[in-house]
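dude i think i finally got it to work??
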Amino acid sequence: MSIISNGIVLFILVVIAAISGYKLRALTLSGAIATIIVGLATLLAFGAQGLLLMGTFFVTSNFWSKFKADKKKSVEDKIKKSGARDAVQVIANGGVPGIISLLFLLFQENFLLYMFISSLATANSDTWASEIGSISKSKPVHILSFSKVDAGTSGAMSFLGTISALCGAFLIGIISHYLWNEVTFQLGLAIGIVGFIGNLIDTLLGATVQVTYTCPNCGLNTEKTNHCGQSTMYKSGYRFLNNDTVNFLSIALGSLLILLFTM
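look at this
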């Protein structure tokens, strides 16, 4: 098959994956469309290898989000969004890799490849930390005060979540070593470290500047603007820095950190 034919087949697979995500209620309709757009950008820039790495992130993220979902009800009460991912959530996690893919199409520089991989390592690390850490039997601690807080609290860390974050980041780094000749084993490890640091940046931003609200009815601190059927009250942070914005920023910063190892 020609390169064009291979590309068409791969794009069809992206569309099928997005439709399947929609049918399985892992994605909303807008989320499925955003997934196709990000997948196309990745395919054009990095080919099958890029799609495989992007797919690793999306598939494992969806798996862990559904894993023991019944035990995450209290966490879902705190976070702004749960369940099927919409376009905003897809862009929050896949927007940076998508943008880097477009830049790679223009400039064809290896450092953009490393940034692309590092952005996925950060996104995977953060997702594994939050999804797996939320089922920890022990309460997490706040990254600044080290006091115990409820699961789902912005800026919280648990031992299980931290180990999961490390595994999620290094999974992307090691896989990338086997997908690209340009990624040495040492660089793959560096990408894993950078991805984990990106997750820590996300946690720190969540603890310091991310917006939080309080429910006037039950007193719950939450990311939601509505709870118990009524509007929540502003508590702290910047209103424009919700969880999606913080995810996007931390992934962007994580992608830039790899330049310290490669430039």
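The two ends are 37 Å apart (CA to CA).
im so relieved honestly
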